[in-house]
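A note from the maintainers: we've had questions about how concatenated examples are separated. There is no special marker in the raw files; a new sequence line simply starts the next protein. For clarity in this README we add a label.
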Amino acid sequence: MSRISVRGFAVASATAVTTVGAVVGVAAGQPASVGNAEATAADATIADIPAGAQAQVQTASLTQQADDQSTQADAAALKSAQEAARKAAAETAQSKKDAADEAKAKKDAEARKKKELAASRSDARDDLGDLVGKSSYSIADTQAIARQMVAGDQFQCFSNIVDHESGWNYQATNASSGAYGLVQALPGSKMASAGSDWQTNPATQIKWGLNYMNDRYGSPCGAWSFWQANNWY
């Protein structure tokens, strides 16, 4: 066997070196001093060790190699776990930021919508001021008032009901029941909750009718669906 250095077998630990030194010392008939054993082992070769002890040296070297590899694997696993934890924390932080940004954008959009709606209602009130306050109203006048007061997507449903109930005559009276006005409130005096001029002002009747439809059916279109099924609402 060639003179391979014991270091070639990666005997890196003190324990392994001590073991080699002890074996060499015993084989030479010398006391197995730990200090001397380490010095001897550092310069020893496989050829200097009795054949019977060479397997022990190789086993110690392989064991040390396995320990080193295990330590390296543990370090790599720890590093990988730390990196995964950092990545997960970063993803969580980004998710929270995205959610906060989305909530802010939604809140801003709602604020803009409310502002636009308020401006639209203000414009509608200004336009409405030109329509009300008359001594009498034509069908066209009354419909123009309704368009200012009823939401665009609900106007047709509201109009369908008024068409059937009064033909857009704000002074329409049902002789048998006493129902009165555009939406045929029964009794007509119910509309006083919307204004004392309920008998002569289409805007007051429309206001009351809208409140009634929204409260009872959710919307004018909800009221129209019920009317179609029952011929009354």
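[label: protein 2]
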Amino acid sequence: MSGHAAAATRRYRGRFAPSPTGDLHAGSLLAAFGSWLLARHHGGDWLVRIEDLDPPREVPGAAERQLRALAAFGLDSDETVVRQSQRHALYQHALDRLIDQGRAFVCRCSRSDLAAVGGIHRRCVTSSAEHKSAAPQAAIRLRVNDGDIVAFNDAIQGPQAQDLAREVGDFVLRRADGYWAYQLAVVVDDADQGITDVVRGADLLDSTGRQILLQRALGLPTPAYAHLPLLLDAHGRKLSKSDAARPLDPADPLPALRAAWRALGQSTQALDAVASVTEALDAARVSFNPAQIPNHVSGLAAMHNDPGANAV
């Protein structure tokens, strides 16, 4: 991995890592703004990484629109934007190390095979004869050992613990269709970019145990974690999967910035008098209090530009 991760001093380095599966919406802004605020609060760097490793789900032009929207909201990366699609050699190197260590193995189990054993992979469930017949292309999984329990303290959600053998099982590092799995790519990228603090939505809290286990297997440092509350629609669905997830309006950024500020539990008055994005971000940096970030799921109403709305 590159030299950032081995630096003698631990300068705060955070990141925002959207997938180009659509335009940024209110939930995306909450994650971007929250991670930016925490980086600035700690006097650190804030990076943007495009996680474009799943071409079948990508929307043409979405990555460029996401970057333009971030710029309109004043959220520019402190370093060159990294794209996962250009980093295959890094992921292959990490995978080769895990295979050489005996921690990763080839798996031809199909989804129906896994469904038959409750969906948690603890050993290959197809016979060798089936492997040689109509078995699907092979995936590669990380071998999870009995007793692999990961515990960590999330800065917002509090103490967490996950028994990976019982709750997750052997998980995919490279998919059967040949694409890299999110878990491996994000661990490699965070280490290579020297990320010290991962701030993201609470929907990824469940992935953290897998990522810490991978970090340990690869001998990589484990960053601090902070999982921001999610925005849900009126039906309790994550906003990104909801019809309510309308794209942000880069031409009118202040209402959405104020709404994201409220959803992060901050004082509404701090941004009331600002007249520009620059003024809003300057005021936010001065007034931001991480202790006020809520740890529970936010309702969509918290993002409405309603002067009477309360922070959650």
